[in-house]
Write a structure and sequence with these properties.
- The chain is 13% helix and 24% strand.
- It is an alpha+beta fold.
- It has one domain (38-133): Cysteine proteinases (Cathepsin B, Chain A, Alpha-Beta Complex).
- It has a 7-stranded mixed β-sheet, with helices on both faces.
- The protein is globular.
Length: 134
């Protein structure tokens, strides 16, 4: 996600309405758009750092999503390791400390498009968290 934030800082980004997904082959626009970021911050590793940053905003996190395809609900406790292969949005945590993540695989996947990971560093969720500065 850090590379994406760097790109947006240099080029800007637009809205989905202004540049909709058409599901077909098309030329990419070369201009980014009206929205920019001034940089980004990495939270540092560990549950406490991530929770503190998450109290103020959602976070981009890199995770090991191996084993996620069959997830249908509940708390995901195992089936992944620390081989980073997917980027998601960490949106919150439960009173038990479990992580609530919005995935990009659509609302028919998981729990309406979300997954709840067990507390701690399940799927390496606390290793690579960051957020943009706007």
């Amino acid at each position: 996600m850090d590379r994406a934030f760097d790109y947006i800082q240099g080029n800007g980004i637009t809205t989905g309405d202004a540049y909709p997904y058409l599901g077909s082959k098309q030329a990419c626009k070369t201009t980014g758009g009206a929205y920019t970021v001034t940089g980004h911050v990495s939270t540092g590793q560990g549950s406490v750092n991530v929770q503190n940053a998450l109290n103020l905003r959602p976070l981009s996190v890199a995770v090991d999503a191996n084993g996620w395809s069959a997830y249908k609900g509940g708390v995901f406790r195992n089936g992944c390791g620390t081989s980073i292969n997917h980027g998601v949005l960490l949106v919150g945590y439960t009173t038990e400390g479990n992580w609530v993540i919005k995935n990009s695989w659509g609302q028919r996947w998981g729990d309406n498009g979300y997954i709840t990971l067990a507390a701690g560093n399940t799927c390496a969720v606390t290793d690579y968290a960051s957020y943009p500065l706007v």
